[in-house]
Amino acid sequence: MLERRETADLVGATLSSLTPEYRAALVAKYVEGRSVADMAERSGKGLKATESHLHRARLAFARVFELLARRRGGLGGTGGVGAMVLQMAKIAGARVLATGGSDDKCARCQSLGADAAVNYKTQDVAAAVEAFAADGVNVFWETLREPNFDTIVSYLAERGRIVLMAGRDARPPFPVGPFYVKGCTLVGFVMFKATPDEQRACAADINQWLASGKLQPQISEVMPLSDAAKAHQLQEANTLGKAGSVAGKIVLKP
């Protein structure tokens, strides 16, 4: 977890990097409480330009808080998403504890950069989390459709964050008490709902990491397009049936 001075330095550096227009937009919106329309009228820059300044300033701070959030995290690290999140977290400077359903998958997590990996089928995950982060993890990235929130919240540090990106129809029980007394946050993440500017910024980073070799795509199966039905069955068996036979993406070739 970041010390207060380190956090202040990071936020201060971000403020210094913003243009005067972007800093003014942040102050007007979040300190003075003005509406975007009022900001546009006072500045004389027009509604579109004011919205752009505010959006770019928010993007800058989103990157700061993403970095703060990922300093110490836990996730399943061998799936198509988990493997990428693991690598991105390491690029951002986080310490990462990953889980895998076999010893081979745990070894794969560590080859991708995980500081520690635990086999959730044969090992005590709670003990591994405590050994890795005695005060709890700052971020728990969940890709299961029906998470066990009681367990997840017990792993979190004070003000920890849970990131969800699966389970549209899921309605699991939720431990409201333990969650709120820790001051935790629950964030839903849907990639295709990111704004064009957000996607553009992410694409620039991802392309750079891919080109430099810092980010390695994880391909589990390559199948001909004629086997599309089999590919769907394989994905369903792993997503719904939890077969555990896929470690990465399924690619169809024409």
Silhouette: globular
User: Quaternary state, please?
Assistant: single chain
Helical proportion? 40-55%
What class would the helix/strand composition place it in? alpha/beta
Which radius of gyration do the C-alpha atoms yield?
21 Å
CATH class of the largest domain: Alpha Beta
- CATH-wise, what's the superfamily of the largest domain? NAD(P)-binding Rossmann-like Domain
Number of E-state strands: 8
Strand content: 15-25%
Low-confidence stretches: 1-11, 63-71
Secondary-structure element order, N to C: HHHHEHEHEHEHEHEHEHE
* CATH third-tier fold name of the largest domain: Rossmann fold
Distance between the termini: 47 Å
Mean pLDDT: 78
| CATH second-level architecture of the largest domain | 3-Layer(aba) Sandwich
Characterize the largest beta sheet: strand count, sense, and whether it forms a barrel. Answer: 6 strands, parallel
Structural commentary:
The protein has 254 residues and is an alpha/beta fold. It is built from eleven helices and eight strands. A six-stranded parallel β-sheet has the order 3-2-1-4-5-6, with helices on both faces. A two-stranded parallel ribbon has the order 7-8. It is globular, with a radius of gyration of 21 Å. Mean pLDDT is 78; it is low at 1-11 and 63-71.
